[in-house]
Amino acid sequence: MTTDLVFVDTNVFVYRLDAADAQKQARARAWLEQLWSERSGRVSYQVLVELYTTLTRKLAKPLAVAEAREAVQALSAWSPVVVDDKVLDGAWAIEARYGLSWWDALVVAAARVAGCRFLLTEDLQHGQELAGVEVVDPFLTEPSA
Known about the structure:
The chain has six helices and five strands; from the N terminus they run βααβααααβββ. It is of the alpha/beta class. The protein has a five-stranded mixed beta sheet with strand order 2-1-3-5-4. Strand 4 (129-130) and strand 5 form a beta hairpin. The longest helix is centred in the N-terminal third of the chain and has 17 residues, at 22-38.
């Protein structure tokens, strides 16, 4: 699967850095290590903003600001998608067609703009196809699948 581009949603990065759930942390780590080694992971600036906010304000044990910034800055190597008119137009169409929340529609639209075949997230239905992007739940699927 990971020879194709894979867009990674915020929750996967959060699980990688939050020790609250050891099983999900291990699975998120395995996925992200594989995507890093294959250079096939993609994100958007929306995901980076959500990640920073979650890591510093929403976790039971928030990360230090410097650690959160380092995690977000490292992901600049993944060619983050800018939320521009193309992403907005795509998100509005996806929101209307599939009935997704606005934030989920933005993620799917950014994945399309990035040319991703897969969207790695636990927030949407595993196996669902949304505008040409297949949802993969990282906690139901091994990275090698």
